Description:
By secondary structure, the protein is of the alpha/beta class.
Amino acid sequence: MPHAKRALVTGGAGLIGSHVTDHLIREGWTVRVLDNLEPQTHRLGKPAWVNEKAEFVQGDLTDRATIRQAMQGIDVIFHQGAYGGYMPEIAKYVYVNSFGTAQMLEVIREDNLPIKKIVVASSQAVYSEGAAICPQDGLVFPSVRPVEQLRRGDWTVHCPLCGADTVPAPTPEEAPVGGETVYGLTKVDQEKLVLLWGKQIGISTVALRYSCTYGPRQSIFNPYTGVIAIFCTRILNGLPPVLFEDGEQTRDFSFVEDIARANFLVADSDALDGLPVNVGSGRGVPVREVAEQISAALGKSIAPEVNGEFRPGEMRHLTSGTARVRDGVGYVPQTDLATGIGRYLDWIRSQGDVKDYFSAAADILRNKGIVHKAAKP
């Protein structure tokens, strides 16, 4: 795709979409941004960081006329727009993520639009659980941990073949795809719709399965997504970071500028066309360690709060296997976690007074049955 220069970035005012927009403009592309400025994320309206060199369209990707107009004169679509996080609105997830994507593809086919490529934002949430090594059975792909097990306070990932304790391993794209949360299920929908449709129509498509993405512009208003953002706002308000389970679950964290560069690389190459592709650091970090790093960086000694709560369907360990993206387009992350946290903290300090929105949200999640509490041993 070396000659494609006109891009549509859906969700282009958000964390990843805005950085994709900036990267494309630096590379000389013409960019149109479509964003509905979802109040949960953009409480103050259109953010100042939306690149002034991009054409900005405020509208909803679920609106047929809006998405039809937004795709006019476009070569490549970076489909970042989605409704995300741990939230109770099941129908909204399906409507925005699944229906919105399906309708976008339908309009392209109906109108015979000359779109050359679609890069769709998928997620590590499509996996049921990270890959694991069993001392007896080797590499295994465990399913989601049963709620009954979690209620007992047993957080371990057991081998699906023999039941033994396992240790985490990098998860390759060949791992089974499940979707054990409503959000995860709709990301499965999005990537499968786009990849299947691309093969049928003959349009290049790639699905990028992002690991936990963080960095400047991550919403300080949305209490349901982004553990690093939540920890920062809690600690800045003198409150302890809340750790689910025992805090030893691991996540693969990616700095947002690295994720934006991955989008550009796969759009500019045909090497990974038609494939789902993990994009991560390849390193699993315990969530407790992240909380401690942020506390140290802020110079605040606040012990995390661990009260035995858990979220059914949440994976214990996930480290992205990154061989496909590295070998295919030469992607190697450039920002380590400590540097990335420092850059995010510099940004969040520039935002003035930062309030804690997590406490009220946590009560909602408990009342809706999305967060459970384990029985005391």
